[in-house]
Structures are given as structure tokens and as C-alpha cells.
Amino acid sequence: MTESFGAVVSGVSLAALSDNEFYAIETAWFQYAVLLFPTQCLTESEHFAFSKRFGRLERGLQRGSRPSAARIANVDANNRLLPPSSLPSRFNIGNSVWHTDSSYKSTAAKASLLAAHLVPTTGGETEWADMRAGYDILGDSMKVWLADKVAVHSFRFSHAWHGGLELLSDEDLAHLPPVKHPIIQVHPDSGRKILFIGRHASHIVGQPLPASRKLLRQLTDQSAQPPRTWKHQWSPGDLVIWDNRCVLHRGHAFDPQQARVMVRTTVAGDAPENEWAA
Prior knowledge:
This protein has helices at about 20-30, 45-50, 85-90, 130-135, 140-145, 155-160, 170-175, 210-225, and strands spanning about 5-10, 35, 70-75, 110-120, 125-130, 150-155, 180, 185, 195, 200-205, 230, 240-245, 245-250, 260-265. The protein is of the alpha+beta class and about 280 residues long.
């Protein structure tokens, strides 16, 4: 990992944090962008309570829904393995590609908090890429060229290939139209410039479609390389919070005959008129 990317936090109980402890955690999060809290074993209500300290929680893919803990799993409610052809299994394939959560929404997510409940013996890691450092390594001419460029982020574009569109009705999809986000952004808490891209970014406004998609892939690929990445092998009870405003992430493959159950909450972006916040 880079010197200021990713940190392990020990000696605290997330279920019983003092205000001073939370302030120290939040300050560290602004610096490191990804924080791992080993073996916290939070209940769902404790997971929610810790998440809410970072801001309002985000609604799901349906605009009128209430925030909920998203279950990312290859088993059903009775912990029976799902076949690879099932919709949940196919939907989760999308997590294997570098992305930032909810960038296809008008206000992208602020934070994601992922907890491990059941994990395979090998594989199934989550990996993060520091897009602050991704910006820093750009050549001066590319920084200048990208300075005023805007990317279109689209749920339809990023989910059509693996079953994601089957999850929603036509009405739900209509409430997730393509949105525009500047490619170069300034992080509101650290003041650092970042690259805001990932698999939900379809193309660059005003540029030829094939060429701009190729460039976005190249920018992601060159950014998401060591030492700008950090990969974690999960243990049950671990919780990680990452900053979607400056970090990409992806999940790694594992034996589909082994159960993997993860639970995620999402903190909504801080925009005052965020229709996706509750």
C-alpha cells in the first residue's frame, strides 16, 4: 500500500465508540481512505449505527426504498449454495471489475462499510485502488487535458453484461438515467485531486465513444497497480470502511462451492438535495 493508503485499526469496539474515538477514526479515514477493523462481529443494528455516524444512509436501487443492509452472498437465506446461473450469482460478477459504488446515481456514494459473515478458506479477497495516487501519477499534459472533462456514468452500461438489468423493473431503470460526473475532482475533506472513474463510467462527453472508453479503461488500469492498491483476505467479523469519493474496489474470485456472505451498508453523498439519501 502507499504510505497514506489503507490502515488497520485495533483496540476499539465499534459497537461502543466514544465521540473522541469516532473523531480519531474519521480523521484517519480522511487520510487513509480505507480502514480495516478486524473481528468486530457487529450485529446488524450495530453495523447500521456505526455507518450512520458518517452521514445519512443511501437508498437502494429503487428510489423509494429505505436503506438496508445489502447481502452480497452466493447462498440463499438458508445458507444453501446458489447455482452460478442464478440472478444473485450473475449480478455479483460485476463486483469483480474496478468500480466505485453508486457513481451511476446523481449523487454518488460517500462511503461503503462491508462486513464479513461467512468467508471461503481461500480467495474472495477485496482489493482497493487509491485514485488520489492515480491522479498523482498522470503526466502533466494528461492532467491538463482531463481538467475539464466529464464522464457519463450509467447503470445500464455497466450492468447489462452480467444480469444486473434483470434485477430492476423498467420503472426502476427509468429512475437511474445516465448521469455526468467530472473526471477530475477535489476531495471535499482532504483537498486532494482524484480520478473519478471505474466500470460505471461509460464514456467522456464530447469525445468519440470507442476512443474515450479505451482511455477510461487505460486510466483505471494504470491507476490500479501496486503500490496504489491494497488487498485484504477476510476473516469472519472483519469490517472495512472505504471512501467511494477517492477509492475504487473489486472482489476476487473464490471457490463457488464454498459459502461467502458479506453485508454492506452505504453512506450517501453529502449533497443537500440528494434524492438517494434517507
